[in-house]
Amino acid sequence: MTQVIFWAWQIAWAPSFKECKEKQAQAVLEYAYQNGITSFDTAPVYGMGKSEERIWKYLKPYRKDIQIITKFWFDWWEE
């Protein structure tokens, strides 16, 4: 896998910056893959699962060639 890891927070969550639209997320993910990035970091907390959904949706054809790094400890709760 690549030494550079794509941090997928930006393609899903926008509390402090301009939102990444669906077509932008697709273009960024495909650009990263086409330019040699094969490791993608995500987590359920990145857009409440939106990051993981977008990675799966747009990189599914390349699934055998990529590495998806995720975290699974985070839990949503109401106080």
Structure description:
With 79 residues, the chain is of the alpha/beta class. The chain has one domain. It has helices at 22-34, 50-59; strands at 5-7, 39-41, 67-69. It has a three-stranded parallel sheet with strand order 1-2-3, with no helix packed on it. Helix 1 (22-34) links the parallel strand 1 and strand 2. Helix 1 (22-34) crosses helix 2. The radius of gyration is 13 Å and the shape is globular. 20% of the residues are buried. The model has no long low-confidence stretch (mean pLDDT 85).
Please bin the fraction of helical residues.
Answer: 25-40%
Widest beta sheet: strand line-up: 1-2-3
Give the rounded overall mean pLDDT.
Answer: 85
Radius of gyration: 13 Å
Compute the number of structural domains.
1
Give the SSE layout.
Blueprint: E1 5-7, H1 22-34, E2 39-41, H2 50-59, E3 67-69
Parallel strand pairs: 1-2, 2-3
Helix pairs in contact: 1-2
